[in-house]
Design brief:
Blueprint: E1 8-13, E2 15-16, E3 28-29, H1 36-49, E4 58-63, H2 71-81, E5 87-92, H3 102-108, E6 112-118, H4 122-128, H5 134-145, E7 151-157, H6 164-176, E8 181-186, H7 191-196, H8 203-219, E9 223-226, E10 229-231, H9 238-244, E11 249-252, E12 257-260, E13 263-267, H10 271-279, E14 285-290, H11 293-304, E15 311-312, H12 322-330, E16 334-337, E17 340-343, H13 345-348, H14 351-357
Parallel strand pairs: 1-4, 1-11, 2-3, 4-5, 5-6, 6-7, 7-8
Antiparallel strand pairs: 8-10, 9-10, 12-13, 13-14, 15-17, 16-17
Bound molecules: iron/sulfur cluster (SF4).
């Protein structure tokens, strides 16, 4: 029974106050008049009627910028899905911190906050198009801290003016506020974005920064459990862990993506079409594709090698390039214990190359 196996729900909030010039996520300018809450509640009703939401354990509100909406919005959405969850995460932009009632968010059922800091360096924030100051970040962190234990901070690597010193300063300040989780993403840009985001370090420096962060955080007892993610005391992002493990998830909201067994379902990214379909009592689906065995194998390897748990080679041994694996093992990029194959910290730096080379 498919619907017995869906434990994860992603809700895409497709709005931002302004557009950051390095961003590839789907979002449009926030429009208070768009009836998003009404439409999302309708989407939830339609999935509920199919019985798909009765075993949801983890919810992730991502974006876009979920914090454009008030805490009441989330109280209504969460209670329409259920009343007992393992983890409910929300992404918060420091710019919105002063307007958020974190106590109300907590009583609405949110259990985990992910704060998109990126850096405390205000010159870098300006070039990145992030509209907040260091003081605003600290104020938001303090307001979150008085209500939540389970907190994640984001830091982009390879931002303007990035250096070991700047990264060190940021990490020390991050650690001062005792997050349970950190996400460090390497900034990747297309040629147009490259022209807008100036004063960036070169690729060699970016690799040095990533290595420095890995070492620094592991010394502070953060477990490097995924290529870009570090957790203390097993406080992983459960929603993400389930997605990397290829468990089923539903994606709601414009542009939301679901994977249910071998089906990949994509919602329309057009706000107009999203509205029209739901007003017509139809799920706002743009496409539904079957993943063939080759797609499934590639995704299994691609997602599994992102994590410290790696992949199980037993069932897929005939599909792997064992000469390449031996070479990577020799170079200290890969480990293969019993039937588990995973990347080392050094291997994470060559992730893209390794994934395509071993198939
Ligand atoms: S706030 Fe986040 S989602 Fe919105 S444009 Fe900036 S990086 Fe993209």
């Amino acid at each position: 029974m498919i619907n017995e196996n869906i434990e994860n729900l992603y809700i895409h909030i497709p709005f931002c106050r302004t557009r950051c010039p390095y961003c590839d996520f789907f979002s449009v300018k926030f429009n208070e008049n768009y009836p998003f809450k009404k439409l999302l509640l309708k989407e939830i009703v339609l999935y509920n009627e199919k019985g798909y939401l009765k075993n949801i354990k983890n919810i992730y509100f991502g974006g876009g910028t979920p914090s454009v909406y008030e805490s009441n919005f989330y109280a209504e959405i969460i209670s329409s899905i259920g009343d007992a969850f393992n983890e409910v995460s929300i992404e918060i932009n420091p710019e919105d911190g002063k307007n958020i009632d974190f106590l109300l968010l907590k009583s609405a059922g949110i259990t985990r906050i992910s704060l998109g800091i990126q850096t405390f360096n205000e010159d870098a924030l300006k070039i990145l198009g992030r509209n907040y100051s260091k003081d605003q970040i600290i104020n938001t962190i303090e307001r979150i801290r008085s209500n939540f234990e389970n907190i994640s901070f984001d830091r982009l690597i390879g931002i303007p003016f990035d250096s070991i010193k700047q990264l060190e300063n940021d990490i020390e300040l991050y650690l001062k506020y005792q997050p349970t989780h950190l996400s460090l993403y390497i900034l990747t840009l297309n040629p147009t974005q490259e022209r807008l985001i100036t004063n960036r370090p070169d690729d060699d420096m970016v690799a040095e920064l990533y290595k420095y962060a890995m070492k620094r955080l592991e010394n502070k007892e953060f477990e490097h459990y995924e290529i870009s993610n570090f957790a203390k005391n097993n406080k992983y992002c459960q929603y993400n862990v389930d997605v990397w493990n290829k468990n089923n998830y539903i994606g709601m909201g414009p542009g939301g993506v679901s994977t249910i067994e071998n089906k990949r379902i994509t919602n329309t990214a057009s706000l107009k079409e999203y509205e029209n379909l739901l007003n017509n009592n139809e799920l706002p689906i743009r496409s539904s594709d079957i993943l063939n065995n080759e797609d499934e194998l590639f995704e299994y390897i691609m997602l599994g090698l992102r994590t410290k748990w790696g992949i199980n080679t037993k069932k897929i041994k005939d599909n792997l390039n064992w000469d390449k694996i031996a070479e990577f093992k020799e170079n200290g990029l890969i480990k293969h214990n019993n039937a588990t194959l995973f990347l080392t910290d050094k291997g994470f730096l060559y992730y893209n190359y390794i994934v395509t080379a071993i198939i």
